């Protein structure tokens, strides 16, 4: 778990950049399709569903983008340190007593980044689901089978991306297999309590 935490901390800047691109793309896509569908008007249930889905996805994706940017900018600017310095410069007595020590501030920044990434992942998944729903509904308006085909291709594409990640993982080395075997053997052995 410690290794996962270190890996997440080191990849956080990249994850923030990828998240920004994902949210930016969703925002542009939603705005484009909402504007096109508004000209059609409420002619059909499929159009109403599409507009409702896009209208719900848009504020979610904007919120996700804001969270990513704010947390990233707070870290880059060093807002916690700037705030402490501002209180010191204003002559606030014992300003440091109201702020955590530098090590704890760094831990709080790391926690803030991780929490923001988890929240934005949830926001992104919901935004993507709403966007796909809106797209399928809009295509359903043209012909029901186009919506079904688009949904199947979207699911297949997701499966293909997952397959790429699964198949590009390195194979287990002999040393890794041995470590796992020893771990399984240790788990199978009955535990000897005190006095046995």
Question: What's the structural blueprint in terms of helices and strands?
Answer:
Blueprint: H1 2-40, H2 45-77, H3 79-89, H4 102-142, H5 144-167, H6 174-188
Structure overview:
- The protein is 83% helix and 0% strand.
- By secondary structure, it is mainly α.
- The chain folds into two domains: 2-142; 145-189.
- The radius of gyration is 25 Å and the shape is flat.
- The two termini are 32 Å apart.
Helix/strand-derived class?
mainly alpha
Q: Summarize the amount of helix as a percent range.
A: over 70%
Instruction: Note the run of SSEs as H and E.
Output: HHHHHH
Supply the number of structural domains.
Answer: 2
Percent in strands: under 5%
Rounded mean pLDDT is 87
Give the overall form.
flat
The beta-strand count equals 0
What gap, in angstroms, lies between the N and C termini? 32 Å
- What is the number of helices? 6
Low-confidence runs: none
Compute the gyration radius: what is it?
A: 25 Å
Quick one: biggest sheet?
A: none
Brief rundown of the structure:
With 196 residues, the protein is mostly helical. The chain is 83% helix and 0% strand. It is flat and about 65 Å long.
Keywords for this structure?
flat; mainly alpha; 196 residues; 2 domains
């Amino acid at each position: 778990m410690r290794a996962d935490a270190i890996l997440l901390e080191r990849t956080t800047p990249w994850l923030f950049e990828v998240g920004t691109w994902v949210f930016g793309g969703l925002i542009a896509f939603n705005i484009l399709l909402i504007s096109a569908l508004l000209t059609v008007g409420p002619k059909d249930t499929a159009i109403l569903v599409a507009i409702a889905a896009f209208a719900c996805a848009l504020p979610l994706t904007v919120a996700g983008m804001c969270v990513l940017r704010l947390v990233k900018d707070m870290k880059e600017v060093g807002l916690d340190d700037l705030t402490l310095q501002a209180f010191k410069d204003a002559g606030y007595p014992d300003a440091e007593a109201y702020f955590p020590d530098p090590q704890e501030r760094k831990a709080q920044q790391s926690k803030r980044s991780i929490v923001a990434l988890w929240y934005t992942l949830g926001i992104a998944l919901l935004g993507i689901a709403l966007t796909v729903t809106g797209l399928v509904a809009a295509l359903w308006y043209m012909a029901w089978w186009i919506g079904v085909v688009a949904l199947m291709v979207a699911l297949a594409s997701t499966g293909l991306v997952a397959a790429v990640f699964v198949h590009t993982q390195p194979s287990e080395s002999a040393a890794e297999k041995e470590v796992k075997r020893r771990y399984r053997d240790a788990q199978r052995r009955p535990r000897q309590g005190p006095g046995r």
